[in-house]
Design goal:
Blueprint (H helix, E strand, L loop, with lengths): L4 E8 L5 E6 L2 E6 L10 E4 L4 E4 L1 E6 L12 H10 L2 E6 L10 H14 L3 E4 L15 H6 L6 E2 L9 H11 L5 E4 L12 E2 L2 H6 L3 E2 L1 H18 L3 E3 L5 H12 L4 E5 L27 H12 L5 E2 L8 H4 L16 H10 L6 H15 L18 E11 L18 E11 L2 E5 L2 E2 L6
Parallel strand pairs: 1-4, 1-5, 6-7, 7-8, 9-10, 10-13, 11-12, 13-14, 14-15
Antiparallel strand pairs: 1-2, 2-3, 5-16, 16-17, 17-18, 18-19
Bound molecules: N-carbamoyl-L-aspartate and zinc ion (2 copies).
Length: 437
């Protein structure tokens, strides 16, 4: 017998309060506030709390296999649940690279065993991420992991003929190529955004054009072959303009922005604290405004965390030697609330779209995730207290790594509870131990 939950006086998508009953893995009942029968059920008091579909991350680095010292599937998915997620797509830049059916099935199985969220492995586009030969995309698609998203993330598929072939290939199984848009020659030795700050502090710059040139090329390739393209972690005002133009032409492109690119700027590089070293780099305040506007008007489809855990040895060193990347699963929703909801640019219904329904659709897991909150739907849900505030402490994060850029910052909102198919993975803001699938 599974536990029945009554979510008392919660506000689905920020709307009017209702009671929501979860039983046998689904939303069993939605009734007037205070009226659901609590007999035999666990009651979660939710007055003022917003109920969202479980969040879906299209871009998570879980590091297993290969860098279990930074994160494992178990620790990363636990962090995901704490952040309100019920599904994550695990990037392929592991060791070995997830470029065969064997490796994606291994990650898929580890996800099943973890039980915190559904793990959907992303397959590499090229063998070993080396940009030279296409990986066995079809074998990964047909595997038990049912891969639909392919990416060499961490590296750009820069050879245009390989990119074209990949876009053509994924069409046969409704897949998508998620591009890490970085022209390699324009970014050799790059350490941060190219601009006023890089010139002043003397770090090698990563120019906006290196991102924009690849996105422009790829939307044209996607149009030419009639395929589906997804742009990872878009970060510049020019990139937003190109995607807006491509969509106006009917090109089948979707785009993501990370929480950190919605709030942080390259001014932080002046600290020389490598926590702020990330790829693509933090950009200018004008870029931050442009990506917020692009997210608000639908040019940017989703927020994806690009959760990139790294060990202290790889981050607590001089800027030039440090790894690129920052954690994000446990702060994503709060950053979206701070930058987009509390500023009046998105409603909670919009948040459900950009952090759940749209990523579920792009990753083709929308039969289970990103669903409307209705009777009979799978109970993949997250309950948020938007009036709470918290100060982020790196060492208190659930992820196995401490490289959060928000340490010491006060952020709004707190994930109170997360449910995966009606089972609580988080209650009272704390992961529920001993979960099994
Ligand atoms: N974002 C990063 O700075 N790093 C990512 C790779 C990537 O997303 O490009 C990583 O794997 O660490
Ligand atoms: Zn990337
Ligand atoms: Zn990434």
């Amino acid at each position: 017998m599974s536990t029945t939950y009554v979510l008392r006086e919660v506000r689905p998508l920020g709307g009017d309060p209702v009671d929501v009953v979860l039983r046998d893995g689904v939303v069993a009942q939605i009734t007037a506030p205070g009226t659901a029968d609590a007999g035999g059920a666990v009651v979660v008091e939710g007055a003022g709390h917003v109920l969202l579909p479980g969040l879906v991350d299209l871009h998570t680095h879980l590091r297993e296999p290969g860098r279990e010292d930074a994160e494992t599937v178990a620790s990363g998915t636990r962090a995901a649940a704490a952040g309100g997620f019920t599904a994550v797509h695990a990037m392929a830049n592991t060791s070995p690279v997830a470029d065969t059916a064997g490796v994606v099935e291994q990650v898929w199985r580890l996800g099943q065993e973890s039980g915190w969220v559904d793990v959907h492995p992303i397959g590499a586009v090229t063998v070993g991420l080396d940009g030279e030969r296409l990986a066995e995309l079809g074998a990964m698609a047909d595997s038990a992991a049912r891969v639909r998203v392919f990416s060499d993330d961490g590296k750009c598929v820069h050879d245009p003929i390989l990119m074209r072939r990949a876009l053509e290939y994924v069409k046969s199984f409704d897949g998508v190529v998620a591009q890490h848009a970085q022209e390699p020659r324009l970014t050799e030795g790059a350490q941060m955004n190219e601009g006023v700050v890089s010139a002043e502090i003397g770090l090698t710059g990563w120019p906006a054009v290196a991102e924009e040139a690849i996105i422009a090329r790829d939307v044209l390739l996607a149009e030419h072959v009639g395929s589906r393209l997804h742009v990872c972690h878009l970060s510049t005002a020019g990139s937003v303009e190109i995607v807006r133009w491509a969509k106006s032409r009917g090109i089948d492109v979707t785009a993501e922005v990370t929480p950190h690119h919605l709030i942080l700027t390259d001014e932080l590089a002046r600290t020389y604290d490598a926590t702020y070293k990330v790829n693509p780099p933090l950009r200018t305040a004008a870029d931050v405004e442009a990506v917020r506007a692009g997210l608000a008007d639908g040019t940017i489809d989703i927020v994806a965390t690009d959760h990139a855990p790294h060990t202290r040895e790889d981050k607590d060193c001089e800027w030039g030697a440090a790894a690129f990347g920052m954690t994000g699963l446990e702060t994503a929703l709060s950053v979206v609330q701070a930058t987009m909801v509390d500023t009046g640019r998105l409603t909670w219904a919009d948040v459900a779209r950009v952090l759940s329904a749209n990523p579920a659709r792009i990753g083709r897991v929308d039969d289970r995730h990103g669903r409307p909150i209705e009777v009979g739907e799978p109970a993949n849900l997250t309950l948020v207290d938007p009036s709470a505030t918290r100060t982020v402490v790196g060492a208190e994060q659930v992820t196995a790594s401490a490289n959060t850029p928000f340490a010491g910052r006060e952020l709004p909102g707190r994930v109170v509870a997360t449910f995966l198919r009606g089972r609580a993975t988080v209650l009272d803001g704390t992961p529920v131990e001993a979960v099994t699938a």
